[in-house]
């Protein structure tokens, strides 16, 4: 596949948002100011943030039939109607969550010269900087990112794993192992909710790909003019988001035509369905657009894990979910090709999924 032209964002005092914040400019640089239609508005109250489903993983694992079935039904509804839910009692020790928060914060607080040792190369999504930038005129997100491939080992770039903080690598390894087990567990329950064998995704995915991205959103003097992260759906099968304690509320999901803020639940993890599950379920479970907004006085830190099939796997709607009433909506494709397509295009809602849609050229 020919490389896509890319315009790297220089990591310097002018365009690194943390450095911008330190300089306290009298106005927001034009490169960050969104067009009127894209600017965040106050979230409407038509949908309450408290409506976003909360799934108790402990209840899903219960042998008590009634309790298990009740929670399983909630999971099914969450996947069908929201594409997002928060999971509690997930089994990950709170110290693991606290440790990853600490090393992530410590990394972003390092001097710029130290962070510049791990630059995100053009057209890639590993390293420090901003991803998905392919035009000199493209608006930038009010966010600093640090992303790493974790599993399988062949996708790692050892040069990008930082030596500071000293416990960064070990902490990320422990955290990623726990998140991987959570994803495997959730996918088993999601498969059962579809009437499929619990191990269907595990058998299909091969050695699953796992990557982590840490997002730091400094305060912004004009949060009404910028976006922390552009609207998009994820190309993964599942995404796990940890909203760091005491951060501003920044995550919003698109429900109908309304942007709904996701209020953090103590010790919960936010789960969302990715494009891959939408394709595999033939649209029964849909990925959902989401974005991040900024705050005038408070910063925000989030830690995101993407869990997806092996790049060698060929994917398409599962036959059990295709019939006369639900005709095939997506073509079969190589997951590695889709991943390459995803990371070499800017974030534009769910447009990346057009890659797989059979009716993409004719649908409204």
From TrEMBL:
Gene3D superfamilies from the UniProt entry: B-lactam Antibiotic, Isopenicillin N Synthase, Chain (2.60.120.330)
Keyword annotations: Iron, Metal-binding, Oxidoreductase
Pfam families: 2OG-FeII_Oxy, DIOX_N
Annotated Fe2OG dioxygenase domain residues: 208-309
One Gene Ontology molecular-function label: metal ion binding
Family: Belongs to the iron/ascorbate-dependent oxidoreductase family.
Name of the protein described by the UniProt record: 2-oxoglutarate (2OG) and Fe(II)-dependent oxygenase superfamily protein isoform 1
The species this protein was found in: Theobroma cacao
């Amino acid at each position: 596949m020919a490389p896509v032209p890319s315009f790297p964002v220089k990591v310097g005092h002018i365009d690194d948002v943390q450095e911008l914040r330190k300089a306290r400019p009298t106005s927001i640089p034009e490169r960050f100011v969104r067009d009127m239609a894209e600017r965040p508005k106050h979230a409407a109250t038509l949908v309450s943030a408290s409506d976003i489903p909360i799934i108790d993983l402990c209840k899903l694992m219960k042998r008590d039939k009634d309790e298990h079935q009740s929670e399983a039904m909630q999971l099914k509804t969450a996947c069908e109607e929201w594409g997002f839910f928060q999971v509690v009692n997930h089994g990950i020790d709170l110290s693991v969550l606290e440790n990853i928060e600490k090393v992530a914060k410590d990394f972003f607080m390092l001097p710029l010269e130290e962070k510049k040792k791990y630059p995100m190369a053009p057209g890639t999504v590993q390293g420090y900087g901003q991803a998905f930038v392919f035009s000199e005129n493209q608006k930038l997100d009010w966010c600093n990112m640090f992303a790493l491939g974790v599993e399988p080992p062949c996708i790692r770039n050892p040069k990008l794993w930082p030596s500071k903080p000293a416990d960064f690598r070990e902490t990320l390894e422990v955290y990623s192992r726990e998140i991987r087990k959570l994803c495997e567990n959730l996918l088993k329950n999601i498969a059962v909710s579809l009437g499929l064998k619990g191990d269907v995704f595990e058998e299909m995915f091969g050695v699953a790909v796992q990557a982590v991205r840490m997002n730091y959103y400094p305060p912004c003097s004009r949060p009404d003019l910028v976006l922390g992260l552009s609207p998009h759906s994820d190309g993964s099968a599942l995404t796990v988001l940890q909203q760091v304690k005491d951060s501003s509320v920044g995550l919003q999901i698109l429900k109908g035509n309304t942007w709904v803020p996701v209020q953090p639940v103590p010790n919960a993890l936010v789960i969302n369905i990715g494009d891959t599950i939408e394709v595999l379920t033939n649209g029964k479970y849909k990925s959902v657009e989401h974005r991040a907004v900024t705050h005038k006085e408070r910063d925000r830190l989030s830690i995101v894990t993407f869990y997806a099939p092996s790049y060698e796997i060929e994917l398409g709607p599962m036959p059990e979910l295709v019939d006369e009433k639900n005709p095939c909506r997506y073509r079969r494709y190589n997951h590695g090709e889709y991943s390459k397509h995803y990371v070499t295009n800017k974030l534009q809602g769910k447009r990346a999924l057009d890659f797989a849609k059979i009716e993409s050229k004719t649908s409204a």
